[in-house]
Amino acid sequence: xxxxxxxxxxxxxxxxxxxxxxxxxxxxxxxxxxxxxxxxxxxxxxxxxxxxxxxxxxxxxxxxxxxxxxxxxxxxxxxxxxxxxxxxxxxxxxxxxxxxxxxxxxxxxxxxxxxxxxxxxxxxxxxxxxxxxxxxxxxxxxxxxxxxxxxxxxxxxxxxxxxxxxxxxxxxxxxxxxxxxxxxxxxxxxxxxxxxxxxxxxxxxxxxxxxxxxxxxxxxxxxxxxxxxxxxxxxxxxxxxxxxxxxxxxxxxxxxxxxxxxxxxx
Length: 266
Ligand SMILES: Nc1ncnc2c1ncn2[C@@H]1O[C@H](COP(=O)(O)OP(=O)(O)OP(=O)(O)O)[C@@H](O)[C@H]1O
Ligand SMILES: [Mg+2]
Prior knowledge:
The protein has about 270 residues and is an alpha/beta fold. The chain has eight helices and ten strands. A hairpin with a 2-residue loop joins β4 and β5.
């Protein structure tokens, strides 16, 4: 088997010496893989993503990308944060364009191509007509779409996404799940796909999208199990209605049920 794209080896992260957010996490993420991470609130998902993004150092253990240590952010990794992190002083168009001007796709795009890409991406996430609005004029779901568009416009090789669809209504969510699989490359050969690390609370979303689902347990965040999702691709509505899909969702739910209940007690 080829070397992993990203390798986490016994990675731990504590805050202020007492809070252990992540403990001894070892995980290989393959090139072109769609990996979902699920687990109860507070189990360390965002912390893992921040470390992969190069925004937080690990307290111990090693993290490597293409065999080289992760020491900071890089243009090959696009990040979508849980709180959207939009620029309030930029319009929708300005926010989306930001990813292109400063992102990895900047090279080689003419101004006309850039404009075309920005408009197309805005349309794709259903924000046509809102291009000139500012974040404070948008609903939470719309802001999330802007953040998604900003990430997708730059088409990075590795997408690191923290609950990117959580604030959307059910219908939009389904549309964007399909769209995300298209952008990832589910219609292309495995060798031409991007690598995605996708954090979600929603088990059905993880199963629908991912090649593998990493289930974390909490306090401290540990890897409980990795579940292979062998549903055929391309996936779509038929997948969502299939018995295999329901069975996989159920088995992952059983893995985290106890913890999820415990988390609601805290
Ligand atoms: N900067 C920080 N300082 C101190 N503690 C932190 C910090 N960031 C995270 N933590 C703690 O680390 C643990 C994991 O937090 P994290 O945000 O990674 O969880 P999560 O799985 O993303 O949760 P959620 O599903 O609610 O987004 C929590 O106990 C949290 O309080
Ligand atoms: Mg989080």
